[in-house]
Amino acid sequence: MSKDKxxxxxxxxxxxxxxxxxARKTDRKxxxxxxxxxxxxxxxKCGLPYAISGKISNFYDLIEFSTEWFKKSKxxxxxxxxxxxxxxxxxxxxxxxxxxxxxxxxxxxxxxTGARPLIPPIKNIKKNNTLIGNIFTLxxxxxxxxxxxxxxxxxxxxxxxxxxxxxxxxDSLYKKGMNVTVIEALPYILPNTLDKDMSNIVFKDISSNxxxxxxxxxxxxEDHADIISEVSIKNNETGEEKNIGTDLLVIAxxxxxxxxxxxxxxxxxxxxxxxxVNRKCETSLKNIYAIGDCTELYDFYTKKSVPIGLGSIAVRxxxxxxxxxxxxxxxxxxxxxxxxxxxFFGLEIAAVGSSVKGLPVVTGKFNGLSLPHYFPGGKPIxxxxxxxxxTGKIIAAQAxxxxxxxxxxxxxxxxxxxxxxxxxxxxxxAYAPPIAPTLDAETLACDVVSIKLDRKR
Amino acid sequence: MSKDKxxxxxxxxxxxxxxxxxARKTDRKxxxxxxxxxxxxxxxKCGLPYAISGKISNFYDLIEFSTEWFKKSKxxxxxxxxxxxxxxxxxxxxxxxxxxxxxxxxxxxxxxTGARPLIPPIKNIKKNNTLIGNIFTLxxxxxxxxxxxxxxxxxxxxxxxxxxxxxxxxDSLYKKGMNVTVIEALPYILPNTLDKDMSNIVFKDISSNxxxxxxxxxxxxEDHADIISEVSIKNNETGEEKNIGTDLLVIAxxxxxxxxxxxxxxxxxxxxxxxxVNRKCETSLKNIYAIGDCTELYDFYTKKSVPIGLGSIAVRxxxxxxxxxxxxxxxxxxxxxxxxxxxFFGLEIAAVGSSVKGLPVVTGKFNGLSLPHYFPGGKPIxxxxxxxxxTGKIIAAQAxxxxxxxxxxxxxxxxxxxxxxxxxxxxxxAYAPPIAPTLDAETLACDVVSIKLDRKR
Lengths: 457, 457
What we know:
The structure is a homodimer.
Chain A: E1 7-10, H1 14-26, E2 32-35, H2 48-53, H3 67-72, E3 75-78, E4 81-87, E5 92-97, E6 100-105, E7 108-111, E8 115-117, E9 126-127, E10 130-131, E11 135-137, H4 141-150, E12 156-160, H5 164-175, E13 179-183, H6 196-206, E14 211-213, E15 216-224, E16 227-235, E17 241-245, E18 248-251, E19 255-257, H7 260-265, E20 275-276, E21 288-290, E22 295-298, E23 305-307, H8 311-325, E24 340-344, E25 347-353, E26 361-369, E27 380-388, E28 394-401, H9 404-416, H10 421-424, H11 441-456
Parallel strand pairs in A: 1-2, 1-7, 2-3, 7-21, 11-18, 12-13, 12-18, 13-14, 20-22
Antiparallel strand pairs in A: 4-5, 5-6, 8-19, 9-10, 15-16, 16-17, 22-23, 24-25, 25-28, 26-27, 27-28
Helix pairs in contact in A: 1-8
């Protein structure tokens, strides 16, 4: 075993675990070590809401690669092990498992330290620096298991945050028979994923299943014997306050990256407060890579820094960093597209591309059906596309409805290829009565943009 | 009404009807006339199998634009009217409705004369130049209604041709409770859509529902009182013969373009025997356009002539020709992609791109699941991608399984954008556990190609 190729990975989430896997594929001989503070090997964090709802019958099903798998792949996985320090000069990682200190040298180091939930400043939310009873975040397997075992303790659940995870949790708790209320500080749901008009389509569709307060923040918790009983919320605009009886509170208000190890080691921290990496997942320090939720890369179109908050990108960074740390050369695309999707209350949503706020864009929207009008069973599909006013290039798209994700993938391909809306609108999409109409909402939304662009010329 | 803009369209199928619609959108004032030999206004031919199966409850539901719609749009639609001659010199179309002769001058003429079913040379298939009882083609509404009313006359149906329409019909008749046999002359089913290995996946999936004889041709019909009773089939390789009891025979063995009017007028006929058109749908004759099943255009990648056999392209040609005939300027992409899809026995299939036979291509195939492994309900999805060995550009793709069509649309976009497989394999596809895995079969098939290309370098 040649010591000059030893790889250490800190974190065994989707990013870290994938990195180990691809490092091993690239180099069959190098020593690969993973330090993970959790007690489980690589599992799907994105799958947690579905284990809570019961769709996935067992939490352990979420484990994607078992400890046995890592052993067989000759990857040394240390669970329940916290890295205390990175000694850059001597290339040593110092970790702690129980009372034991582990020191290990590396040639390449991959930081996959992830992120932790952001706790909003709500009065009485903690006692002795711990969340009071039946208030949870959703980040780890154990978080999910705790939520799961609290479901039968009452009928009313409140969720803070109407982002993707907040609404996935709303659906899960609704499926478990709870009355669910969602509190969102911003004026509309899914503010990081959809525009207001697209968000409103989702709101209308799901608001019969779940009570949603947009423009509201949670201000205070009331408890009985250290168990939550009520949450006070306040209207951001009117200042009006209201109390909501709550037996279970889930906080899904965003993440904070775990960057202290990287910072202490001297890695450059970027504009969004995450570890700066390039297309090869290299940090500012030689032989140190960083991947996943602790990192930021730039947007494909605007070239502005964006935090990596998606499992799909984490996995791709895992591939790149694993290959590169093992001596290969894998370069990610020239920026991230941030293709994302989710499904709740039977409604699929998806989006791709840059945040276009402040950019000179022309938008086109089309509300149609997923099937020809004469064919029974067609479902609503709404597509909104964002086009650079000057170049005519597609820079973003949003979809709500049938097969939204795969429709958005086609836009992702167009953005990655730098495709002009005039080209895309003439795309021959696959047509058959039981599958899709002759002209899909995808291209029809682009026709709307074309007409607007023509008028401007 | 300015006579110098008068538009005549021959044929009111998807191509002709769409042309009229877009001509009217482009020019609110010009006179627009359609001559259609059928007795129905624009209806979906692709929907006919689903009206036979009962999925679409009424044949008339297939009518996409009613005679009232044409009237309201000030489009003169003559049904049951056959065009006898085009007088190029005087720009006159001479048509016949019943005993009446209609002469009409045009400024622009659009030929949307379609195609008719090819009848294979089978002994005794006709009497007095007419197909004998319970033998049908499937092209028109009346064909479909005749098939429909023959279904209850016996249990056994035979279909000649295992292309898209043949298998759609097989599914429809199976759903009506018939025992269905399909005869295909070529060695595997869907020979114009899929490669043999991809076709075999379909074969395995559907052969429990329908009996399929590949490599067989029908040679002879036996009848009782001019009603079919048996069809004799012969193995192309072994010469072995077999009789199949048949109460209903449907011929789905391809089409012959209706080009005699165009030919007589002097329009250039292309290499595939269809009317030659360019990207503006212009024929070789000034002010004469042709669109739909009677035409050929060139393939996007090979630039070789291909017949237009798809409703989706016909509609796009309808848009282009309608706009152009009315004085606009609409140019179709630089060749057709032939994106196609269908669904039978619950299985979705789709394909896009050039026929790659004889071309130096590298292929990659991936058989995966539509969802992450830990998520229940994932369905098989197989993707095969074809890449130019020299340039690395994606030139074709085939898919069988879950959301095959929308997956193929993404490849269609890549082909249209001239995308390299190295770029596409790094595409950020949308991921969420209930919707798609972190790495989709789309990009994983491309990884296979990349590895093969690397080895060749």
